[in-house]
Amino acid sequence: MATDAEPGRRRRCCAQDTPDAPKVPDSRGDSDGPRRGSLCDRHCAAINNVQGDLGDLGCHLHRPRALPAVSTPSCCQQHSEEVCESCVVKTTLTAENAVEANKLSNNYKFGFKKWKSHVTARPWEDRSEIVKELYSDLNVIRGSGGSTLTCGNVLYLLLFGWWLSLLYVLVAAVMFITVMGAPYGQLCWDLAGYFLWPFGKVIQRVEVPKSHQACEAGVGESSTLLGGPTPLRWRLQCWLGSGYWQRASSAVWLCLGYPVLVLAHGLVCVTAWLLIVLIPVAKLSARATSRVLLLPPERVLIRRLRMTEVPLEGEVILCCHRAANPYYYKYAVDGINVFAVNLLPLVLVTLVLGYVDSPNHLTGSAVKFTLALLSIMPLSYYIGMAIASISAQSNFAVGAVVNATFGSITELTFYITALIKGSREGNRCYAEVVKSALTGTLVGCVLFVPGLCMVIGGIRHQEQRFNSRSAGVSSALLFLSVGGVFAPTLFSKVYGKLVCGECHNVTQNPLGHYLCHNCHFDLMDNNGTLYYSHVQPLVYTVSILLPAAYLIGLFFTLKTHTHIYDIHISDCHMPGHHHSAVVHWSRWRALVILLLSTLCMSACADLATEHISPILTNSTISQYFIGVTVLAMVPELPEIVNGIQFALQNNLSLSIEIGNCIAVQVCMLQIPILVLFTIFYPTNFTLVFSDLHVYASMFSVVLMNYIFMDGKCDYFQGTVLVMVYFILLAVYFFAPSPSGC
Length: 741
Hints:
CATH superfamily of the largest domain: NCX, central ion-binding region
Largest sheet: 3 strands, mixed
Oligomer: single chain
CATH topology of the largest domain: A middle domain of Talin 1
């Protein structure tokens, strides 16, 4: 329960701030006003007191989960339901600093990219213990409680432990053979047992007694520092003496032993890092290579944790408790999620392989197309992160320009490169694939994205509510955009001439019925009079009106009617904790990353279109299906992940807005830009879609508006949307290939 003593969880609920709610009369003007306003305010306060936090500490989105049963006197009964319903749609955002608050506010603005990840570094004390463990070094002793026999530790033994231990034994044998490397041989022998099962053991850096004191000690004499017999490595070091022989021992180690172990640990580090859940093993190998193996052997002490008393004498270098941690999917490097970090080398491999191996000697077109398509995912993430960082650190005008310019750059890059290739080859199939991808993005963002978010969010929350007014704005624009985009198609079907490739007389009667195949509406009859005089002007008119409607929608939601989102920014600093914004990416750094990512995106899109031709030609799957699935949804995977994360935090409004905004941008920005591009660079792209695209898009928009009508949903409604999407995919899968392919 939130109280006034908790500033980080304070609710703000003022009924008069919402336009739909009746104005509460001022206490000086109406005697009933104070009594009615106070009762309704207490009603709203009761609602807010029962709602839970929807985000992590430092970044909360507060929404009421259910309307509590609060008795209302008759004086407020006629107003309580309407007033308190206005309280339900209120959203209070709390952030650690102004930059993060600006990013959260941008998430609710129409036309701005919705971004879940932080653009600033979160204060360490505000993080949970689980997250702190992810970023901690492996030099902290957390006690010896619990068994070390876990599934993750056994997996380490099977993947790395046995052969790494065997390698240390072989290196130890080589060091003993050289005689001068005997101290390092003994160290490798000890480390062989450690790396076979490092859990429950500690590696320390200890201070070594003076050489003459250690050499005077007998075999059975104990060390006062270690509380046990003097290690064999110390006695071997004393036997070799100091000066020249010690330098020779180090030289032998650095030439014969250390490089081999560095390569082995490097392989372990890279493999464990790519597996993500085994990142502790990667840290273990990296720390062993940089710290343990470079220490003099007499300064390394390996002991079992159960034999160690806290505090320890000497510095703890390594202390690993678990080899696997499932929460490492949250791990970030300089604000970049670990998945995006791991996929970045894939971009380099794709570019090198695509442009160096042009004749396809090393790999085929299918492999290069797959790599290019997968490379688009991390690049989309970096573009989204850069846009969110620039918008959060800039004013509204700069943020709006950046979002409008680069918000659809991922899809437009692929579409334009495909149209250019199709124009050069004289192949109409590329234009049909682009139309399929546009339709697939529209249908997927209207059905699949919100439906999947509803299902996953509904598993955690029984019923989810969202701002129906803000969703209504996007729905209205979506209706307008779909009607405008498909207007030339409907016009061509009304006035176009139906041409069929092959017809057969079924009844053998010249006046009987004919069965025709490969029929389409020909717009080029009579030297293209219908197309050039009627359809093309209509296409240009629609391409002008749709961006104008988009700008009006921006002006409506961001300037004149900002209250429909009802966003409040409040300070959530705990008493005594005041943090300045430490951004992950500065504006200039974000701009450089944005430009580089866009350049790499263009190269990957060029490779994808270059190697898609054999797939379209030789594949038995319909080109419709390839366009509406792979080419349409793969670039949107980062947005889908953001929507799922918002839904898990019971913030379904942003999950729905992600899909709606992408669908609106497809119709109101991307398609007009493609039409504008065809004016300066003639291609085979015309704004006339097949019947399947028209019916699928219109049915999806109608169904989405019906589901979102009441402002609340559950996992069942999400399942309906997802099932309808898969039914449409099945239709596309079994549909014949479009004409020209």
